[in-house]
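#data-curation
PF: Archiving a pair of folding outputs for the training set. Convention for this channel: one message per protein, sequence first, structure tokens after, nothing in between. First:
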Amino acid sequence: MFFNKRKKWNSQVASLMPTFGLDIQQMGVMSALESLDLVYPKGFSPQEAALYLAYVTYNSLLSKGALDAAAVVGKRIPDAENEWVKLHLVNPRNPKAWREKARLLEEQAGATARLP
């Protein structure tokens, strides 16, 4: 029973990733699943988990110096985040913390395109 619930949730998260111009294959299946393993027990909605993966990917791209690719993802994060917070699908405290980490990485990477 648990596995079927988790499998459905994983599928829902994966279906939301194109919102950010991403898919699980691009991110790396194992990497994405490891990230999802961290947030599933916390009761994240599929939208919250997708947003988390988008931030993880954004931060990873910044860390690797892939600033153009990071900018593409970074442009898409705010719209989805604002909409999902407004619809109460995402706890606003979580993206606030993720955004703070992203801003630190933006500074370190010298990114010109930044999250608002």
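PF: Second:
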Amino acid sequence: MAAGIAHELNTPLGIILGYTQLLEEDLEGQEEVYEMLKKIESQARLCKRIVKGLLKFAREEEKKTLTEIDLNQLIDEVLSLVEHTLAMDFIEVVRRYDPNLPKIKGDPEKLKQVFMNLITNAQHAIGEKGKIYITTRYDPEKGEIIAAVADTGCGIPPEIQDKIFEPFFTTKGEGKGTGLGLAVVKAILEEHGASIEFQSPVEDETLGEAGKGTVFIIRFPVKNTSKGGEKDG
């Protein structure tokens, strides 16, 4: 997570610094304004140092925590934490697990965060009475594992579909969300060499109910052939 946010902050901070320095050159004789610009530059440089520290920390943590993961089991662990609230909203979870998934290498806590976020988003999109479909699938020809979370909820409006992975973008009211959820999901997956895409409404009926809701599709590259996972649901 730290690495993803740090990378996203680096670019705007670089732009702020660049334009501040240009303005300093143009306004060097105007002492009051010039001093304000120097303060802006100083604080922007401080932010850059913080970002650099976050990136270093993230790299060190990544080296420490990579383990072999049974993805089916990991998703079940996440579901065990939310099954009560899903049941209260009359939301049924449909598991479509491939029992022959190779294990992947990664940080289990970060990947739990990914699936917790996607499942929670699906719950919010449904509100009450609906289904969440969770699919895992191994494609040996492409050398990848697909993990998908689909819902029968309200879907994502077309006008915001190109913004949902942007940091700080949220459709929730003020004080009800940071807008970092999907940005962090994307960043964590990129750390694992994985990608994420979505369909809204669902197009692939093997992943959910075609014409309804949204499905997020994760693709993990597979570099080994060790098998794991259990058939479920």
